[in-house]
Design brief:
The protein is mainly alpha-helical. It has one domain. Helices cover 93% and strands 0% of the residues. The chain contains three helices and no strands. Helix 1 crosses helix 2 and helix 2 crosses helix 3. The radius of gyration is 16 Å and the shape is elongated.
């Protein structure tokens, strides 16, 4: 996995989590402030899922790019 893929997924996950907390403060805001474990799970779940899809997408793009050359 390229470091760029990891960095982009990390930033996108942070934006999604912060955006979700700002959009739904009654639900996610309470989960993020009441217990620190929820903050970690709130970040880790989407991060792992996005990282998996980014890794698969990276593999597909690299194979398509190599076939073009």
């Amino acid at each position: 996995m390229k470091w760029v893929t990891f960095a982009v997924v990390f930033v996108v996950t942070i934006v999604l989590v912060i955006g979700g907390i700002m959009a739904y403060p009654d639900v996610l805001g309470k989960a993020a402030t009441a217990n620190n474990d929820f903050v970690f799970e709130l970040f880790l779940g989407p991060f792992v899922v996005l990282l998996f899809f980014a890794w698969v997408g990276e593999k597909v793009v690299l194979r398509v790019w190599k076939k073009k050359e």
